[in-house]
Amino acid sequence: MIVGAVRTAVGRRNGGLSGVHPVDLSAEVLTALSERTGFDPADVEDVMWGCVSQVGEQSWNIGRNAVLAAGWPESVPASTMDRQCGSSQQALHVAAATVVSGQADLVVAGGVESMSRVPMGSSAVGQDPYGSKIRERYGNAAFNQGVGAEMIAARWGLTRAQLDEYALSSHAAAAKAQDAGDFDAEIVGVIRDEGIRRDTTIEKLAGLKTPFKADGVVTAGSASQISDGAAALAVTTSEWASAHGLRPLARVHTAVVAGDDPVIMLTAPIPATAKVLARAGLSIDDIGVYEVNEAFAPVPLAWLAETGADPARLNPRGGAIALGHPLGASGARIMTTMLHHMRQTGIRYGLQTMCEGGGMANATIVELL
Predict the structure, then answer these.
(1) What's the whole-number average pLDDT of the chain?
(2) Which one, out of 58, 153, 198, 339, has a CA that is 20 to 30 A from the CA of 70?
(3) Does the CA dihedral 354-1-79-229 come out positive or negative?
(4) Closest CA to 233 of 361, 52, 94, 344
């Protein structure tokens, strides 16, 4: 059971959260999670924390450092994990597996990324993370996500106009949700999500360059934003929640991970969705809301084409194109937003999936309680 879910607002690069150390940013959501949910931090038996660039200020097990910075008891351990963009979604999977297997009663899952302070790719500067055998296997491929997004657009026949229109709709949906106060209950702190561009237009998007391919279709406008943020979820069993007076939000119904071509890199949400639905015994039409991370606009559009999902149920409050993508935090951020949307609208089943570096994807189905 997920009994609590909170997040910071998502800050733009060099924006409102850039002055906050990522350990302190993590501590902020841990503190808010315990206060809002009502559990005693001393009862937390483990913390699973996602972070992609585990170097500099985000090194040396930032999960454990966050626990100490939050003032939680020294008895609370933590681990930091990297499944690329899905790191904190994976953290939720590990937390759920830990409590359902009886290894612990209360586990916190979440993640952080301060991309202003620890730039993307910092952990591999001047290094080759692949080695000769991978290079030989894949013919010295670029392993570049932007290039992969262009490959997806070409394979699924997605035009520049389609991508720009999708990007515009993400900003519009996020602005509408922000204006309606839909994010207020999930956000810690005083700033609001900073990435929403209310003044963007099709004309402005059409004027952007295509950095990944000279005659390409993917631009900065149809890609996720570089961002700062953190998010956290509290996971326990129904028995423990009941015994300690905690109110379950939803149950982790089914959780899977899948792999796909690491060169095109971003297509794994498609097989991951098929896998999670089959394991759950549900159809795509049973799901009331889909959150597919908007790493690049071709990703959710190709996913829609392959799954036959209802576009009206996809990322109803906007996605990473508008809100931003603080890598290690995004899985927990998206889950937090989806859970609050489900509770506010009475949706029974929600499905979250996100593409990940290396050609992987987590997929999670949660059920409202």
Answers:
(1) 98
(2) 339
(3) positive
(4) 94
Enumerate residues 6+ apart whose C-beta is below 8 A from 322.
170, 171, 173, 174, 175, 195, 196, 197, 225, 294
d(C-alpha 229, C-alpha 8), whole Å: 6
Quote the Cα angle for 147-151-152, to 5°: 120
Q: What is the pLDDT of residue 21?
A: 98
Contacts by 309-312, CB closer than 8 A, 24 or more apart: 309/284, 310/285
- The answer for 305, left when phi > 0, alpha when psi is -120 to 50, beta otherwise, is alpha
Instruction: Give 82-116 pLDDT, tens digit per residue.
Output: 999 999 999 999 999 999 999 999 999 999 999 99
Catalytic residue positions, numbered: 85, 325, 355
Query: Could you give the C-alpha distances from 48 to 56, 63, 146, in angstroms and in order?
Result: 20, 7, 29
How far is 344 from 131, CA to CA, in rounded Å?
A: 48
Check if the beta carbon of residue 88 is closer than 8 Å to that of residue 328. yes
